[in-house]
Design a protein that fits this description.
Length: about 290
């Protein structure tokens, strides 16, 4: 039986990459984890439009064909859900109870967002770019219907690697992964990479949406005390993929495989301990 994503919740779908069944460093699209807050919207690419407005000199309405005709950029990027590994916490917290599979790596192709923002002419007073998807739903503490939306600091939005992704692993995006267009923000938690994009707006004030100020936030110490800030860059992290958890091993040498990622930075090295952290040995890095 072919490997499949492990379903964590059925509706909306949240499913994990079966890491032990991925034998290369690029995750096949069908095995790439899915994180949905609401049900997948049914979109017709012929009538779908992407509006670009807010604090801009020239508001735009773009079709998929117009985006396809613009200069494209291809890059490799890891996405991880901010809740990856939540089920392992000693003190249970609410949210999707992910094991270790809410992380994956793929090739992404699309239009650099900075090119679109340049066409629109973002105002000098803009500090954030807000992205809204077509998916709609509610949360227990927010019963009113809302679109999924997130804001991105202007500097990150203008980074050349922040793209409007049209293709994944050389093929058009699947509905579960954001067809026809999603934002792709390399190095940041997956929540920033808004799927099913329909609206982009330049904002002169910090975005105050639900998924920006209520969910996907952390507390940080500041001069005035603790402050709540939106999640951004992924933390340094690693996972052992093989041997499997609980696997009985035979005598002799054992080969250990795993994954490591470091947000916006390349991984410099990975060290492994087989004695509970008393001694460490540097590992061999495979792939980029």
């Amino acid at each position: 039986m072919a490997a499949q994503r492990r379903i964590v919740t059925q509706s909306p779908e949240n499913s994990e990459t079966p890491l032990a069944d991925v034998h290369g460093w690029v995750t096949p699209t069908r095995l790439f984890f899915v994180r949905n807050h609401f049900d997948v919207p049914q979109l017709d690419v012929a009538t779908w439009r992407l509006s670009v407005g807010g604090g801009v000199a020239k508001p735009l309405v773009l079709t998929r064909d117009e985006l396809d005709a613009m200069p494209q950029r291809t890059l490799l990027a890891t996405l991880e859900c901010a809740g990856n590994g939540r089920s392992f916490l000693a003190q249970k917290v609410p949210g999707v109870q992910w094991a270790a599979g809410a992380v994956a790596h793929a090739e992404w192709s699309g239009v650099p967002l900075c090119d679109v923002l340049e066409l629109a002419g973002v105002d000098d007073s803009a500090i954030e770019i807000v992205f809204e998807g077509a998916d709609v739903g509610s949360e227990p503490d927010h019963p009113e219907l809302m679109h999924f939306a997130r804001g991105l600091p202007l500097a990150k939005a203008l980074h050349r690697d922040t793209i409007l992704a049209l293709r994944m692993n050389g093929e058009p995006l699947t509905p579960s992964h954001g067809f026809p267009v999603r934002l792709l923000v390399p190095g940041w938690y997956g929540v920033a990479s808004v799927k099913w994009l329909t609206r982009i707006e330049a904002s002169r004030v910090p975005f105050g949406g639900y998924f920006q100020t209520v969910k996907y936030t952390i507390k940080q110490n500041a001069a005035s005390g603790q402050e709540i800030v939106p999640l951004g860059e992924m933390a340094v992290k690693s996972e052992i993929v093989r041997p499997f958890a609980g696997e009985a091993l035979g005598w002799g040498k054992q080969r250990v495989f795993g994954l490591a990622w470091a947000g916006e930075e390349p991984v410099a090295k990975v060290e492994l301990s087989a004695d509970g952290g008393k001694t460490w040995r540097e590992t061999e890095l495979l792939g980029p």
